[in-house]
Amino acid sequence: MNLPxxxxxxxxxxxxxxxxLQLGSGARAQLGKQVALGVSVVTFVLxxxxxxxxxxxxxxxxxxxxxxxxxxxxxxxxxxxxxxxMPLVLLTTFxxxxxxxxxxxxxxxxxxxxxxxxxxxEGMMIGVFAATDALLFYVFWEAMLVPxxxxxxxxxxxxxxxxxxxxxxxxxxxxxxxxxxxIYMYFKAGDYSIASFxxxxxxxxxxxxxxxxxxxxxxxxxxxxxVHTWLPDAHVEAPTGGSVILAAIxxxxxxxxxxxFSLPITPDASQSLAWLMIGLSLIAVVYIGFVALVxxxxxxxxxxxSIAHMGFVTLGFFVIFLATAKAPGTDGARLALQGGMMQMLxxxxxxxxLFLCVGVLYDRMHTxxxxxxxxxxxxxxxxAALMVLFALANAGLPGTSGFVGEFLVIIGSFHASxxxxxxxATTLVLGAAYTLWMVKRVVFGEVANSDVAELTxxxxxxxxxxxxxxxxxxxxxxxxxxxxxxxxxxxxxxxxHVAQSKL
Amino acid sequence: xPTADLAAxxxxxxxxxxxxAMLLVxxxxxxxxxxxxxxxxxxxxxxxxxxxxxxxxxxxxxAFSGSFVxxxxxxxxxxxxxxxxxVVFLYSRENLEANGLLKGEFFLLGLFGxxxxxxxxxxxxxxxxxxxxxxxxxxxxTLVAFNRDSAVSAESAMKYFVLGAIASGTLLYxxxxxxxxxxxxxxxxxxxxxxxxxxGGVPALLALAFIVAGVAxxxxxxxxxxxxxxxxxxAPAPVALYIGSAPEIAAFxxxxxxxxxxxxxxxDAGWRDMLIALSVLSLGLGNVLAIAQSNLKRMLAYSTxxxxxxxxxxxxxxxxxxxxxxxxxxxxxxLMAAAAFGMIILLSRAGFEAERLEDFKGLNARSPWFAFVxxxxxxxxxxxxxxxxxxxxLNVLGSVLSSGLVWLAAVGMLFAVIGAFYYxxxxxxxxxxxxxxxxxxxxxxxxxxxxxxxxLGLLALGVFPGLLLDLCARVLGG
Lengths: 503, 478
Prior knowledge:
The complex is a heterodimer of chains A (503) and B (478). In chain A, 75% of the residues lie in helices and 3% in strands. By secondary structure, chain A is mainly alpha-helical.
């Protein structure tokens, strides 16, 4: 049996969203929730074969589907996954059911639209990762903004309108210039397939312009310093589920864009501008790390920590040029690239889990201020144990997934320059500082006030939701080999491609 | 007069007879029987469409001694105009009735305007073009003043008339200069004249400047846009719907016939740069001023101006692809504008017009479905996929890029981002705010179905834009 798996995991959630909307928020809202959960779980189950039947020995696209779409633009409905996109698709299908569960009892306002938005978003996000046609990619990429705009704006906090408009305009601005670049390459290449863009010979000037057009789109999504300012606002104001999806998956789109578009399409521009990217990444790691240290708001702290961790991703992706130049013949570049990818996956799990933890606290106390907490461990021991685990993972404790990516990137950077590695490694100190200090103030110590004293520990729904993530964080941390080996061939091919000059 | 000539103009002739017949019937109807006129108007449209299909041609047929042409593109443009005018009548009927404006004249003037649009589309001579333009313009002036007891309507009709007369005069003056230079008014002879070396020169540029100014006025391109916001705001919503939709097809046809078919050889040396200026100004001013509007009709007026900037981009490229892109954009725009004004009409009631932005507040709580339809309209106008507005922008952008104007594409995109702000403001008012008045959204079933179909059409054509793209390409060649 050969099901079009990718189409199924894209369109099943979207169809599910329509059903949920039809059921409405009235008498049948409960049924709507069940449908939403059912659809997201089935989608996850359907996506599992993408991993089990994945052939790690080839760098080619797998589970390929291709149907003529717009003949006038020679655009195709073309899907496929390789070692880069397959793990990200799985991350998406894995997290969406958790997000649905997280909103189960909490969302009182128009629940049908809430769950439908997340299902729509899931389908579109998978579409972004699975599209092998640039036009299809762009359509999913932009369409994603619509449900996200609604999610933050309707169910967000007090300043939600400011945050969601800022989010929308920032990302819209970033992506329109990418569109100009895509059309430009279409005229040169003759079609919109990403593969033919990757093999398109481009002069240095063209490459630099295209590189910056992409940079604007992807840097905003990652987000990189200095276009990161939308993220803390959006995170703080978004509902828990929105924050989880935003941090865990939407940010990965930027990183994915770099490895899918920037590196292979403009290798020479990437090489000559690697210093800029590395510089911005290090600023994100070090400077944003300090910024995170002084945050008084739990969500803001995690948001800044996300920026710092994503700095590691971009560092890993662009340090490969220095590593190849300084230490040819070693594994440096490959390790850095793997590290960047692992960091994306791991950050997806950890930041998602941390935002869920904040959500659990917020649902009880309705405050995100760190100062309002203290001694939560006394009243919520089970929750405290899980939160400490995630916090340690965020700080990069060996044995958790957070360690793998950071370690690989630092080793890769070492091949490029010891100083680079040194600066990158400060994250281990800073990350530990801001995360553990936050944990100390929130979780440990004496019971701070009467509100904390009245807290009740996590219920079964919350416990299992966090437990699943805890298990995932530990498995990836202790035994990352299956994921690394699935990505390895693709990343190797990418490195070879990037090493060949297009000039 | 050979019968071939009559066949070429069969749709126009049929519509003229139909309008005359309706005039006669309407005189004998009582005020409570005006729905008969409505039905007759719809039948006239269907009949005209049938005649157009019956006499459709696969290649250009020039008739009436070179003053009239029927070609595949004119067929498609006309069919689209019938559909749009039909939709306008459908959206308007209930609203007109509620406000005591359901008069036969609305439909008659609407059809006369359509007749003007059709003549303009098929014009092959500057005089027949002017004739079509004036038939359309006179119907529009009268329509704006249609609600004669409203001072605002009267004022905007007056403004429209005075400015419109100046624009017509400008255009006519340009035409007379052209006649002085070339000795002909036929489009293909003009093209022949200017294609020969030394055919251009300063007098031709002078004529061109007047003609471009006239065209820009009809489009509402900056700096000839002053009438648009006032007319949209002053006219009753059904009239604004009419003026905001169907005549844009005429404006496209006017530009295409005059500048591309007639004065095509002057593209590089003359009107390209003029249109670049108009386009950039329209994009800038339209998008920025739309942000400041609190009246939805005015906001849509400025949004129209901004869209015109994009349509002009297709002409700026000047290639067959560019003209196709402009045509596609015009169709997309007309569909979106019809839906947007339809939404205003849907939310309006007797004596109340939902024209303030606040009237859309909390629409999601009143009617989730129509809030969603409006969401689709707004994101489509902003150019967000998967709606048709995205493909329209992509298409003109592509044509501008392929003619090497990368900076213009970048400017267009920059203003598209600025423009996105006021469209999403409507969305946030609908979804993020609580409604001020909780009246359920009520309207006749035909209106609800048509508006839903209109909104879903934006999505369907956005997911499968290939059909319409191919159609534009086939009829315009290339």
